[in-house]
Amino acid sequence: MSNDIEARVRLILGRNLGNVVPAEQISMEEDLLDCGLTSNNYIKLIVSLEKEFGIEVPEEDMTIDNFMTINRIMSYIHTKI
Which pairs with CB-CB distance under 8 Å and at least 24 residues apart come from 47-52? Predict the structure, then answer.
């Protein structure tokens, strides 16, 4: 299941990072801000994750800490599904 979640997260990142860094080249712990994540595509990323995984991210959870790396995104998703 984790591999499926990772693949889906990478697909979403690929759509939301503006091709600055190919999603498949991002390490699990790499800071997504260093990979081109901006405030605009950060919101798009969260909305895309909500739609893809059928979750709702409450405003208080919309911290960069929860979505800074692929590992953190996956951990957050695991708590919601």
Answer: 48/12, 48/15, 48/16, 49/9, 49/12, 49/73, 49/77, 52/8, 52/12
- Give the chain's domains with CATH numbers: 2-80 (1.10.1200.10)
What pLDDT digit, counting tens, does each position of 19-69 carry? 678 888 999 999 999 988 888 899 999 999 999 999 999 999 999 999 999
- C-alpha span between 77 and 71 (Å, rounded): 10
Distance between first and last Cα of the chain: 11
